[in-house]
Amino acid sequence: MIKKAVVCGGGGFIGSHLVRDLKQKGGWVRAVDLKKPEFSDSAADEFIVGDLRNVGIAQQAVADMEDVYQLAADMGGMGFICGDHDAAIMHNSALINLHVLNEAYQAKCRKIFYSSSACVYAKHNQADPSNPKCSEESAYPAAPDSEYGWEKLFSERLYLTYGRNYGMDVRIARFHNVFGPEGTWTGGREKAPAALCRKVAEAKNGGSIEIWGPGDQTRSFLFIDECLEGISRLMASDFSGPVNIGSEEMISINNLAILVSDIAGKQINIKNIDGPEGVRGRNSDNRLIKNTLGWAPSAPLRVGLEKTYAWINKQVRIKKLAQNVVHHA
Question: How far is 283 from 69, CA to CA, in rounded Å?
Answer without folding.
Answer: 25
